[in-house]
Specification:
By secondary structure, the chain is α/β, with parallel strands linked by helices. It folds into two domains: 161 residues, P-loop containing nucleotide triphosphate hydrolases (Rossmann fold, 3-Layer(aba) Sandwich), CATH 3.40.50; 139 residues, no CATH class. A five-stranded parallel beta sheet has the order 2-3-4-1-5, with helices on both faces. α5 links the parallel β3 and β4. It is globular. The N and C termini lie far apart (49 Å).
Amino acid sequence: MDFIPFSQIIGQEKAIQFLKRAMAQEKLPHAYLFVGIHGVGKTSTAVALAQAINCTESKNGEGCGKCISCRQFPGGNFPDLRIVEPDGQFIRIEQIREIDRGMSFKPLSGRYRVVIVRRAEMMTPEAANAFLKTLEEPPPGNILILNVTEPRDLLPTVVSRCQKVGFRPIPASLVAQGLTEKMSLDHEKALLLARIAEGSLGRALAMGEKGFLGKRHEYISSLLSLRNISETEALEMALRFTGKEKKKEHDEKGEEIGKIEKEEIPLLFGVWKSWYRDMLLIRSEGSEDKIINRDLCLELKKAAEGFKIKNLISSLLLIDQGESDFLHSRNLDLMMENLMLDLRRLMGEAG
């Protein structure tokens, strides 16, 4: 991953100041729990912390960028930094044992070895129990940082042994600013992506890279079509989204119609949630300034006609649950099938 120092991480001033105070007081715990939605800077902050505590000329809690240790970070060559991610769907016990083996030795070149565990909630039960033993008696000179979206998905005994640091959703204005700087998007497009991304710069950048604005209409059209199709067709749509549809339709270029990659599903859910929130805002006569899909305001008002507010809320909760099931790698096909049928049913009750 690209290295970003503390000074370039946006929207997480409170978390960064908390970490800097701990460094200044030399009271760094052996384990941190970084909590927040995906894409708000948890891993970037963890890497920036690893640089700052290993910098030989650190000032004001920032790495100097010039010493030997600091120069190794941008290329990912610092030997005492390790980032662990799920192997496939899960973080497995073999990965935890490898962490243990590495921690048994002194840091190679820095003051501290820093191990960052991304998506720590994806540890298997065996891995989580093994990791608990690691947390109980970590060798000196090691700092563990666990990144999670929801602490309740970890063993309570793991959570209790870590210093929790909260990461807030980033304000839309700052996400838009980040998009214009990194991708040269115009302000209106950047702000639209920022609103839909729900405070996640990482998600907003992924949307920009995948030509999201062009796909947004397709995602919304698929959602709206549920009202006028049969249960069988709704199930076929679900399987098309997961790439399991038996009979696939193709366009003039030979590309599959409606097919999306697995990594796009969170973006699909993000669009649907923004659409239902906008309809809920319209039905409850809220301020139109808070509408996310402002460029589609006329379509929104038409779609919201006759919808019961309670059904809009229920639909939002269903999509939220779908997001959670997707993140936890549960049965994707079954989840999408149930979601399509439930959203279709609530649409049928709207009139």
